Amino acid sequence: MRIFVYGSLRRKQGNSHWMTNAQWLGDHTQENYVLYSIGHYPGAVSGEGAILGEVYRIDASTLAELDALRTKGGEYKRQLIQTPYGSAWMYVYQRPVDGLTRIDSGNWLDKDQY
């Protein structure tokens, strides 16, 4: 299975250690989503925009670990998207984004510019 990551799970980011057993497939831009800063990590919500990230091949145990990290408390919901590498899971932010900083570039690595 595959997963699209756009924030702290990307290479050289704070939670990239969770991707140790994952196989990087390539970069991807996902249309129809907007990225917001939630502090030390981002949240993607449906909207007019695009977000940049990476697609990985992962195993079931890695997905279970990521689910425990991302979906606890209902903060994110896993959704299936289409990428050039095949369908992939993506974590979509489930809480209100009012008052959060939008990252217009769609690239979490640009967060320090906001």
Automatic annotation (TrEMBL):
GO terms for cellular component: cytosol. Residues 3-109 form the Gamma-glutamylcyclotransferase AIG2-like domain. CDD domains: GGCT_like. SUPFAM superfamilies: Gamma-glutamyl cyclotransferase-like. GO terms for molecular function: gamma-glutamylaminecyclotransferase activity. Belongs to the gamma-glutamylcyclotransferase family. It comes from Dryocola boscaweniae. It holds the Pfam family GGACT. InterPro entries: AIG2-like_dom, GGACT, GGCT-like, GGCT-like_sf. This is Gamma-glutamylcyclotransferase family protein.
